[in-house]
């Protein structure tokens, strides 16, 4: 019994040190494979799979998303959307950066907004786009519901208005 209490005290004592040594500790809950569904700005439904994994000696987090979008209007063909990206930490700027490459040929570069993020919510805002909208900024929000469930939101913030581009609900695969 004394040994178990000692181990628990050690774990509690060393937890902050581990968190400080792990550059990406606030993203740890994302690591793994996720599946779910979503709805876009036009009310089209999608089936989604996503994965987040450490790579290159835990220097980056690799992000993969795959969505199959069923068009509500049957005149339009269903779509597939894939994107790939990396989350890194820029030591010189002191910011987390998410670089996202999309199958449609556009690129987004997001930075983490610390003032809007906490242990249950991650908020990225676009600072650069390529081959896409130039007015306004995209805001990518990940809300941790619990250890096995998240919601993601993509909003366009332009001229003081927020327009929801999509909402997804994902469950972690075990």
CATH class: Mainly Beta
- Spans of at least 5 consecutive residues whose pLDDT stays below 50 are 6-20
For the record, the count of structural domains works out to: 1
The fold-level CATH name is Lipocalin
Neighbour order of strands in the largest sheet: 1-2-3-4-5-6-7-8-9-10
C-alpha Rg, in Å? 18 Å
Number of helices: 1
Q: Into which percentage range does the β-strand content fall? A: over 45%
User: What is the mean pLDDT?
Assistant: 88
Find the count of extended strands (DSSP E, 2+ residues).
10
CATH architecture level-2 label = Beta Barrel
What percentage of residues falls in helices of 4 or more residues? 10-25%
Backbone shape: globular
What is the CATH superfamily classification? Calycin beta-barrel core domain
SSE class: mainly beta
The N- and C-terminal alpha carbons lie at a distance of 32 Å
What's the main sheet like?
10 strands, antiparallel, barrel
The H-and-E topology, N to C, reads as HEEEEEEEEEE
Structural summary, described in words:
The protein has 1 helix and 10 strands. By secondary structure, it is mainly β. It has one domain (26-172): Lipocalin. The protein has a 10-stranded antiparallel β-barrel with strand order 1-2-3-4-5-6-7-8-9-10. A hairpin with a 4-residue loop joins strand 4 and strand 5 (95-102). It starts with a helix and ends with a strand.
Quick recap:
By secondary structure, this protein is mainly beta. The chain contains one helix and ten strands. It has a ten-stranded antiparallel β-barrel.
